[in-house]
């Protein structure tokens, strides 16, 4: 094959986020289809540096020129350079989506004009994929058939969709920069975590590589550069006669997500009003109303972009404080983006521009705990399973110094599979946050919250205890004028130990409660192990072993005594 004669382009480098802290490692490999032909691919990474890190971030682009000859290379390189220059010089107050849209539009119009007015560049165009990285946020903007993959836990996932039509002569691209004076691109937020690897490939590479081959190379390669070169060589060996370009970006470290970016977005858009059924909000078609609370309203919607159902949550203006509404919705979006737990509902916002204040959640089939309590009496076993999952959900928040402030059956969702999910309150807050607003629902508020204290993890323990009590008693209050009312008054089948656990959770004095829900979980599991669901103490295996050992010792002593007496 004499690959060395094609003079491939290689490059490997690291980008620092802060001093002595690597953000990502990047490897590029590009090789022309022929040593006598200009490589029509162009790949570039632009580091915004400290000045743009929190606003524009970094941008990484792979373009594959069309129309043959030098014109294709001109289209690819010119588009990438103009896109990067235009994007990085726009006002930092403009969102990533808007900035990319404007930069792509300007670069597209420039290439289209040249292709129409310069005979040497007639018909030139380019497909591309651009990745924007801002802190922990990753976005893709693309048109054509450049592929973007995610490599995570030895699995490869395609993140882009080709804009091509199958024809007798092969695939025909119907979206490309320079093809028309207006370019429609796909833009969406990427699910990227620390240690993931993002892969960009031109069609000269991926059309001649199966995902199985990519996976094998990624596993066996000694470095990013080694993986890129092996994939390029494999594509050529498999018959590729096109330019081959590969970019790999390994996410080495991600900064902690801060509130500032979320607040900036929510304070730059109107609060608006909850929509009507049938309305279309930013590509979400409102299907039905599913919850109407004092502070918020939830709708089931169809996302026209992903063809999936989502739940949209809109604020009501009962608080009469626009800043508080914006801040609390920003906090909710921030919390749901940084907390990773199977028992917490995570944000499903894909980065698109919002026309008003709302949050987006995944849609689940099931019902909230309030509806379940009304429909049936939960067994002890069923209730304990819900208790344990909720304790884990709340502790996931407490680990990050976040208190929920509004734990109640309405904010607990049980899926049809039996999974328990805790929904975020309208007004979550951090432990050191102070507010003049009365946060939460009065019936579930800890006494210190009602008295005006900011509260801490023990305040959530109280709310969780009231929720558990209501769950088993079916809405009987745990406290009256004389203090705690035993749960066994309404549910004789409840074990004494479970009644004691809930009593401790709803103690009036925070110092008498569990310090956090991890202690609650530990106590529940310990009591189940010791007493079981019926409340009868189990025989200790240790005691049984000690009795057996004692009998063996006595038997040995008898043998020794009687054995020695015979001599």
UniProtKB/TrEMBL annotation:
Keyword entries, A-Z: ATP-binding, Kinase, Membrane, Nucleotide-binding, Plasmid, Serine/threonine-protein kinase, Transferase, Transmembrane, Transmembrane helix
InterPro entries, alphabetized: Kinase-like_dom_sf, NEK_Ser/Thr_kinase, PPM-type-like_dom_sf, PPM-type_phosphatase-like_dom, Prot_kinase_dom, Ser/Thr_kinase_AS
Domain PPM-type phosphatase per the UniProt entry, residue ranges: 25-251
SMART domains referenced in this protein's UniProt entry, alphabetically: PP2C_SIG, PP2Cc, S_TKc
Domain Protein kinase: 284-531
Gene Ontology MF annotations: ATP binding; protein serine/threonine kinase activity
SUPFAM superfamilies per UniProt: PP2C-like, Protein kinase-like (PK-like)
Pfam family, one: Pkinase
Regions crossing the membrane: 548-565
Gene3D superfamilies: PPM-type phosphatase domain, Transferase(Phosphotransferase) domain 1
Enzyme Commission code(s) on record: 2.7.11.1
Keyword Nuclease: no
Stored PANTHER family: SERINE/THREONINE-PROTEIN KINASE NEK, SERINE_THREONINE-PROTEIN KINASE NEK2
Protein's name according to its UniProt entry: non-specific serine/threonine protein kinase
Lineage: Bacteria, Pseudomonadati, Pseudomonadota, Acidithiobacillia, Acidithiobacillales
